[in-house]
Amino acid sequence: MFTHEHICTTMSKKQKTIEQHHFPWDHPRFRSWIAVARACQLMQQTLTRRLAELDIKPPHLDILINLYRFDGISQQELARKLLVGRSNMSMLLPHLEKRGLIERRGDEKDKRVLRLSLTASGRLLSEQAMEIQTALIDKSLDDEPIEDCLKVAQSMERLIQRLLKEESDPG
Amino acid sequence: MFTHEHICTTMSKKQKTIEQHHFPWDHPRFRSWIAVARACQLMQQTLTRRLAELDIKPPHLDILINLYRFDGISQQELARKLLVGRSNMSMLLPHLEKRGLIERRGDEKDKRVLRLSLTASGRLLSEQAMEIQTALIDKSLDDEPIEDCLKVAQSMERLIQRLLKEESDPG
DNA sequence: ACAAATATGTTCATGAGTGAACATATCTAG
DNA sequence: CTAGATATGTTCACTCATGAACATATTTGT
């Protein structure tokens, strides 16, 4: 829930003359990142409203999409893909299971792991929900040129790699 | 009523031959947005770890930065800037007040509103925390050219405007 | 082969965020 | 002037997410 709405428009003479950034909001990368974070937050809220008619929330959709793509994935792998803790999956998945959207079956080879898959109704719901999400993203970005989107995606993927690297190597 | 027939559950020859996007993850804007969302999520988690030494979390920092910039702001205005509900502020602010970081004083003119401001120690803590946040953002983005950052910021601000507009006008 | 390290999943207490219902206070239209 | 509409803040029940502690199961090192 980052953020500051408007970017500071007043600049002291000192800040103008010597090119330093005394406040975060005068710092271009800071301002850019805040804009990104705010956009994400709003997108999430909008998606939450759009998904309400299917009675699911963005976290559930993230799970469903991953099961759709990666049938038989384990809870651990799923948590890693979603960048959340294992305990989070342990809390959410039983709920989806009770709703009849997913199935959890023990792995024969490795008795620790639970293999996840969509049921027929889970697959149907996933398709409806992905439709909603894709439509929202499309509508929101349709005046950004595709090549700009791809460029942003590349920047973000570089950023993700850096952050994941530093997470494992706490330098 | 949702039509999802153009999302196919099985890979047909047709899908492979004609270049269409039948799955969200084959859709460039979708993939771009997912990258943005993942980057935000990781950034948030990293910031959470970095702020732990100051015993605050990103939501507190967002509040502090806004009080730093906009002394005397009301809870309502603050919630609007942060894109959260009023009830959220009602839950968080008393905690910060008890820690001696902020003050809440009733407005003389309008007895409904509470005016918020930082205490001396709140100001000090804010500066330390902004230092940490700015350093993280800088380190994470320092191989992205400034002009690319600014371009992204503009795209995101356009997106924010669109989403806010549609929120008020539910078309 | 067996002890130690590692991996997977669960449970629990805690914290952040939400919307609805509520209580006041202010504004606006007759 | 007053009644209804609007604005601000609080409380409540609920959801999502986390990390620590735990229980099992597997892998590794000797």
Structural account:
2 copies of one chain form a homodimer. With 171 residues, chain A is mainly alpha-helical. The first copy, chain A, has a domain at 56-130: Winged helix-like DNA-binding domain superfamily/Winged helix DNA-binding domain (Arc Repressor Mutant, subunit A). The first copy, chain A, has helices at 13-17, 28-51, 58-69, 75-82, 86-98, 120-141, 146-168, and strands spanning 102-106, 114-118. In chain A, strands 1-2 form a two-stranded antiparallel ribbon. In chain A, helix 2 (28-51) crosses helix 6, helix 3 crosses helix 6 (120-141) and helix 4 (75-82) packs across helix 5. The two termini of chain A are 26 Å apart. The relative contact order of chain A is 0.09. The model of chain A is unreliable at 6-17 (pLDDT under 50). Chains A and B meet through helix 2, helix 6 and helix 7 of A and helix 2, helix 3, helix 4, helix 6 and helix 7 of B. Chain A binds a DNA duplex (30 and 30 nucleotides) through helix 5.
